[in-house]
């Protein structure tokens, strides 16, 4: 059987109902990378397993009747919850475009519905192991990623950007049992790679590769702002370093100590590759010029601004450069 036969199947879908049914049948499940196959119900799709290993949520973003997968305007996908201890399907259900599932140790599971058509939008769903829908949050933005706590008590998802703001760039967290939305904020940390959940007190921890882990409290307040700022200024990613420096240089009455810290971060960013990146080179030299200005090193500032202009004539330092040159009788010396 080829991969497309396995993806789309050869039979009609088990149910047209969107609310999960609960057929229990002893079956064999085989795994291959990120995919699983259940021949007994002709199912082939992606899956996620609980940390305990007891539960598996699987989904197929495809219409098996019309043999279409991924982006489409109609044709329901499907999902299922499997219990490894009883070796049985706990429930099955239909959803427009199920994706990026997570499952907790208690059997609660989440799925992102990426919606039909081309318009931006998605729905974040959390179900109990009995199929009761605990959370259904519709947004007018694509969903970037999501997570569910190991104990099934908390859930979170992040939306991507949208042209008009709206639901774009939101970090939205929930208490699952009562379906309570804890907060919806635009994260100061940007889009996280992973999430963790803490208790006593409740906190959502966002993890950023190469930067670190940072906490939002149960109300969406960012409680690690200073830690995040320092981490960005010392990380090994110049696309993070330079925006952090730009924010630091906006500080009113910036101290020489902070200006020196900014300069060190800029030099680090350049050594990490920003100097050879056409998209970042001009910005790096512009910021370097600003740092040198604060430090009173005008000749070095002039040289930096000239490098910035040479890389990008529209970088926005022409007037500043002209003003500094007037202040310096012979800037070439």
UniProtKB/TrEMBL annotation:
InterPro entries membership: TPR-like_helical_dom_sf, TPR_rpt
Taxonomic classification: Bacteria, Pseudomonadati, Pseudomonadota, Betaproteobacteria, Burkholderiales
Protein name listed in UniProt: Uncharacterized protein
Keywords: TPR repeat
Naturally occurring in which organism (per UniProt): Noviherbaspirillum sedimenti
TPR repeat locations: 282-315
SUPFAM superfamilies listed in its UniProt record: TPR-like
Matching SMART domains: TPR
């Amino acid at each position: 059987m080829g991969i497309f036969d396995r993806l789309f199947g050869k039979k009609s879908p088990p149910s047209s109902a969107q609310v999960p049914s609960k057929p229990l049948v002893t079956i064999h499940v085989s795994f291959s990378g990120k995919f699983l196959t259940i021949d007994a119900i002709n199912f082939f799709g992606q899956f996620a397993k609980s940390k305990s290993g007891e539960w598996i949520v699987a989904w197929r973003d495809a219409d098996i009747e019309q043999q279409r997968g991924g982006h489409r305007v109609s044709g329901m996908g499907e999902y299922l919850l499997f219990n490894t201890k009883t070796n049985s399907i706990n429930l099955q259900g239909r959803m427009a475009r199920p994706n990026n599932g997570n499952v907790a140790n208690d059997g609660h599971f989440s799925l992102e519905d990426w919606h039909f058509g081309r318009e931006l939008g998605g729905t974040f769903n959390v179900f109990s192991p009995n199929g009761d829908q605990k959370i259904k949050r519709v947004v007018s933005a694509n969903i970037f990623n999501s997570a569910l706590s190991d104990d099934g008590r908390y859930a979170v998802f992040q939306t991507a950007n949208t042209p008009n703001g709206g639901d774009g760039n939101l970090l939205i967290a929930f208490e699952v049992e009562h379906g309570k939305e804890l907060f919806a904020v635009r994260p100061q940390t940007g889009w996280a790679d992973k999430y963790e959940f803490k208790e006593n007190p409740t906190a959502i921890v966002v993890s950023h590769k190469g930067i670190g882990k940072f906490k939002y409290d149960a109300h969406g307040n960012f409680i690690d702002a200073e830690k995040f700022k320092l981490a960005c200024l010392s990380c090994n990613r110049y696309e993070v370093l330079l925006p952090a420096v730009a924010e630091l240089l906006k500080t009113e009455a910036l101290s020489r100590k902070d200006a020196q810290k900014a300069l060190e971060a800029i030099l680090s960013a350049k050594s990490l590759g920003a100097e050879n990146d056409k998209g970042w080179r001009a910005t790096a030299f512009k910021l370097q010029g600003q740092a040198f200005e604060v430090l009173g090193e005008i000749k070095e500032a002039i040289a930096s601004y000239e490098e910035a202009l040479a890389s990008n004539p529209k970088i926005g330092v022409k007037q500043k450069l002209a003003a500094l040159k007037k202040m310096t009788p012979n800037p070439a010396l």
